[in-house]
């Protein structure tokens, strides 16, 4: 088991950038962790690895999937927070996660299927500005 600690939002974003480089060209990252843990912050770092502006990555309101194009490739950002389990098969989500580009899923614990070869990270709040990131086997 591997664990990292970050101090401050910028450190989590930088961590995400390093993970993003490892995900190129078409890896999948499954993120879990509570509200406000720092998942979206980490995704902003992944976006940076593809040359996508951090501000393009947001916590979607009603959008479950959003695609961003950068000079380094495509980022598919999925957030399943507002999803009922019965909605997932209709999204074409499984196909999308095996498609081209880097794919990141927030609230991945709500995915009703396994994604072969995906990297899994759990983000936990350990203090006001500290977070623990744990790699899941
Ligand atoms: N070390 C840190 N790493 C990441 N975020 C931090 C850190 N310290 C403080 N924060 C703050 O925690 C919040 C994380 O919010 P973020 O939107 O990334 O959470 P989330 O896990 O995506 O939540 P949600 O489930 O609502 O999508 C931000 O307000 C950020 O500034
Ligand atoms: Mg989020």
- Could you tell me the number of beta strands? 7
Q: Helical percent range?
A: 10-25%
CATH secondary-structure class: Alpha Beta
Class from secondary-structure proportions = alpha/beta
Described by the principal axes of the CA atoms, the overall outline is: globular
Order of the strands making up the biggest sheet:
1-7-6-2-5-4-3
Hetero groups in this structure are: adenosine-5'-triphosphate, magnesium ion
Total tally of structural domains:
1
Enumerate how many helices there are, as a single number. Answer: 3
Q: Write the element-wise H/E pattern from the N-terminal end onward.
A: EHEHEEHEEE
**N→C terminal distance:** 7 Å
CATH homologous superfamily classification: P-loop containing nucleotide triphosphate hydrolases
**Largest sheet, described in full?**
7 strands, mixed
Integer average pLDDT: 93
Work out the radius of gyration.
Answer: 14 Å
β-strand percent reads: 25-35%
> Do you know the CATH architecture?
3-Layer(aba) Sandwich
CATH topology: Rossmann fold
Return residue spans where pLDDT drops below 50 for at least 5 consecutive residues. Answer: none
Tag the structure with descriptive keywords.
single chain, alpha/beta, Rossmann fold, seven-stranded mixed sheet, 7 strands, binds adenosine-5'-triphosphate, binds magnesium ion
Describe what this molecule looks like in 3D.
The chain has 137 residues and is an alpha/beta fold. It has a single domain, classed as Rossmann fold. It contains three helices and seven strands; from the N terminus they run βαβαββαβββ. The chain has helices spanning 9-23, 39-49, 93-97, and strands at 2-7, 28-32, 65-70, 73-79, 102-106, 119-125, 130-136. A seven-stranded mixed β-sheet has the order 1-7-6-2-5-4-3, covered by helices on one side. A hairpin with a 4-residue loop joins strand 6 (119-125) and strand 7. Helix 1 crosses helix 2. The N and C termini lie close together (7 Å). The model has no long low-confidence stretch (mean pLDDT 93). Magnesium ion binds at residues 39-40, 59, 79, 106.
